[in-house]
Hints:
Elements: E1 7-12, H1 17-35, H2 42-61, E2 65-72, E3 75-80, E4 87-90, E5 94-101, E6 111-116, E7 119-123, E8 128-134, E9 139-143, H3 147-159
Parallel strand pairs: 7-9
Antiparallel strand pairs: 1-2, 2-3, 3-4, 5-8, 6-7, 8-9
Helix pairs in contact: 1-2
Amino acid sequence: MSDKSVFTEKQYLGREFIPLTIRLVLAMFCFAAYFFTDERERNGDLLVVVGFAIIIISIIMGFLLHFRTRVENKSVMLDGLWTTKLVKIDLNGIVKVEKGTYSRYLFNNPVYNLHTKGTIRFFTSGNEAIHLTDRDGLLYIIGSKHPNEFLRAIREEMKK
Length: 160
């Protein structure tokens, strides 16, 4: 068994379009409110500080890794942030693999190893996901920016 990954994907917290847009609109609102305050009061200066803080936090979040997905050695491994544990899904126990949508909602929060109603979810951004069903009926939903490559890698590993 080789340790070479067939598929690797990194998903970052701050790179999703909609939350990034919301943060930038809030920063623009702070700068606009500062511009229209009279006599540049002390409270008005606070608006500039908050606006720059939002922009700096957005830049930092762009480099903050949420989780990494790897397909290797007949398993899917999901490795998250600092305190999260490595999740290893054995592909020998998977009975069905399909590509689908992550959720029908427009806004989805990033999640890692969220257990709800017989599903385990891993998601940062995008609309599409890979649905893995194991022998016990447990559904793993793993969001991906590259679902076609991810699906191909999983099927390739399952054939070995």
